[in-house]
Task: structure prediction
Amino acid sequence: MSIEVRHISKTFGRFRVLRDVSLRVETGELVALLGPSGSGKTTLLRIIAGLEQPDPGSGAILFHDEDVADQRVGDRAVGFVFQHYALFRHMTVFENIAFGLRVRPRRLRPSPVQIRQRVEWLLHLMQLDFLADRYPHQLSGGQRQRVALARALAIEPKVLLLDEPFGSLDAKVRQELRGWLRRLHDEIKLTSLFVTHDQEEALELADRIVVMNEGKIEQIGTPDEVFHSPKTEFVACFLGQVNRFSGRLERGKVHFATFEWLAPPEAQEISCLANIFVRPHDLQVLVEPNGQPTLAARIDHIHSAGPKVRLELTADNGQKLLAEITQDQYRTKQLSVGSRVFLNPQNIKVFPLPSQEGGKG
Amino acid sequence: MFGWPRVSPRVLPGFGLTLGLTLLYWSLMVFLPVIALLMRAAGIAWDQLLQTITEPRVLAALGLSFGGAALAAALDTVFGFMVAWVLVRYRFPGRRLLDALIDLPFAMPTAVSGIALTSLYAPSGWIGQWLVPLGIEVAYTRLGVVIALMFIGLPFVVRTLQPALEQLDPELEEAAVCLGAGRWATLWRVILPTLRPALLTGFSLAFSRAVGEYGTIVFISGNLPMKTEIAPLLIVVKLEQYDYAGAAAIAVVMLVAALLLLTLIHRWQTGYSFLRA
Amino acid sequence: MAASLRSNSRHHIRGHAPASDLTEPWPIRLALILGTILFLGLFLVLPLVAVFAQALAKGWEAYQSALCQPDTVSSIWLTLLTTAICVPIGTLFGLAAAWCLGKFDFPGRKLLLALLDLPLSVSPVVVGLMFVLVFGRHGWLGYWLESYGIKIIFAVPGVVLVTLFVTGPYVARELIPLMEAQGTEAEEAALVLGANGWQTFWRVTLPQVKWGLLYGIILCNARAMGEFGAVSVVSGHIRGKTNTMPLQVEILYNEYDFVGAFAVASLLAGLALITLVLKTILESKTAHQMALAQVSGPETTVAINSNGAT
Result:
């Protein structure tokens, strides 16, 4: 079942949390809503679930192309996993999972035997069999997370919504559960949407990522697209680290620092100030100038613990920069703190500054 | 973040019903009587109101109610601090029993406390027989009023100070000691200032309870006009003489005082969660 | 909240054996402990003992016959009747108030919360007077009601009404902090899972606040049975008719029937003791629920288990 959101806005008091958001999640997809806190992603998720009402007259929410805006929360058949799980504290794990089935109107309610079977099947699926009689406060964070998921799945939801599913877990459990959720999704193929502020989580798990900022969608795309071809400065900065240069676009060229690049095809005609972004791993580090224009810099710090070596540098013009090289390069080049190196960007991303357009061009 | 505890979760049903019920109950049970009192008092001419309140007998009664309550609350704060300190900081047999007993004045009907205290402090009572030879008369004197007011106010101070003392970060005292402060200096310069909001709240709760107290006092005070007569009793006396205007005038003074105290307490409140009556 | 913090720090204090600089020298400690025991003994325990001692001063027989006086028996019935009316209504109102004030945010909420405490801050005598001014013969509604033969002041309905007034806030004020701390996530989860409003309330909300609710009911009950000042103003002290137990205590005492007065008082003091015992038990249970509410999600479970057991 697909989820579609059309032109949704939401205001709390004077605070506009969502501004004209539109989004479509295809059947069976696993999509991440990624953004910093306050970007409106959780509110969007809650609006889709029906836990929050969008501003009156601001658009539609469709499940499988059917408008559900007027449906009550309980009738939308969504599985919702809360950030803090919201397990019922006074019920055992078994009772928690069975809750959604037990509260159905009599004619839709499965028999006690059927309920037991379904709950046991879910406990098994979630590898929780031995915890059926425990209470939530007797479980670890990871176990609670899985109980919450089992409870959401018990009602055979048509879509699954997860609010920061790994937000309150420690790093190691988080990593395990991430792989496990991906496998689970591949198995049951339920249309799923999850909220996260952790870019790594989104990049690793999701089929597609929706990057949000200040109540607006900045970009929708596959992990590859949003990482390698960010459409906005925000996306470029939010996903991974960048070095930012101020420069200008002029007659099909980009000028920044000591460099001159060909402007990207869509910016051929524009002349204006621009921001130029270079990812740390796109910054080639040379021990000797190679004849091409380079930027001279000094190494301030070297972080060599990890798969890549990260260098903190200060360019001759005073700008602080980050570069990332392989362990191999690091060893062959014999770099040390204080070394003088020459930097050469391999790949740049240009964002024209609209406000300056024509002003100085 | 949004939509966490009480921010517009209008999906929860029952808001209109319960708010309506609450407002209805509140207006009928509380608002209506309060308005009746205010209207009644408003019907009295201003100078007549002033005249009633400044009658010597009324002034004496109000003075005893407010002054006695202030004195009792202050004493409660001192003794309550000691009790709270001992109950929180020290371990000794019977501590939990004492802890449970603190609420006794709160749980005991005021008339029962009243006659019990009177019988204890009467010249022939268990305590009175020792005090009277020393020239200390408690029953039927202002001292008796203060002791009875202390009795009912004590739990409020202790129950406000206990959580505050427990919340007190041990690092604070450890830091003070590391900086060379002695125990006494730590108490005066670190602990007491930190507890100030709780002390204030406890004091004002005890004061607020004591100002309006009636049941405990009428027995022990002896009710002598100008001497041991408290304001609530004077209201009753005026009512019995069908002097509704006079009763309303005194009542309004007490109501306004209660409202002021309520506002102050809500502002100072330090997060105590029970026994705030 | 306060109670849960208390159990936390108890652990703390036990855990760290205090260094000598961080506590008082033992003579001072001993003096303070003895002082406290003496003070509380004289100040709290002795009055309680006095009630029972005076009641039994002339022997068990006199005590029994004092309680069997017709006027006393009827005062006991009236107190039970008043309580039986006021406690359920107070509970219902408390639940409604706690639901809208504890689970929702709306303009005016703060004001309403403050006003909720009003009945407990006003002098009981003033409360009584206010009801006389509304329902008394010279009051707003008194004359009109009397023309229908309905008498409220100096009659049982007046006693019930003022008791309702003074007991109204107890349940609400115990439930509101608890419901606030628990938030609305559990209710939202229930709704998403398809439960309707009643199911959510009965199966999710109520079980989570049951100890707090019971605690509030106990306090409400104690006040309903023990209220003196307000009832005294509106009851008219008609023997055998409008006297509640506390009023009966007063009348007997003023007639120098000390055994009779203290016998009735001993029943009320017994009630106070039961209230204290239940209160102590329920306090730790609500502290437990409160603590659970505060760690709904993250992995901080073990501490709660040990705290809740206190």
Notes: Chain A has two domains: 3-238, 243-356. The first strand of chain A starts at residue 3 and ends at 12.
